[in-house]
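Dear support,

I submitted the protein below through the web form. The confirmation email said the job was done, but the results page showed an empty box. After a refresh the structure appeared. I'm attaching both so you can tell me whether what I see now is the final result or a partial one.
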Amino acid sequence: MDTRIPPGWTLVIADGRTRLADARWQRPGFWTDYAHGDPQALADYEHVKRELLTAAPPTEN
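What the results page shows now:
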């Protein structure tokens, strides 16, 4: 398990909820836009997903 927080991720505490995610995913309306197939939201999602999947795994000490 990787316990590092990826660069560009933000913590938002609002309305009794805590969300930790990439800043691009935190913008108001992102998930609605994504669900409706908005090209920018889809591109942002794929970009962040690709970053996560290609990140180097943590090294064992």
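Response: this is the final, complete result; the empty box was a page-load delay. The chain is about 45% helix and 20% strand.
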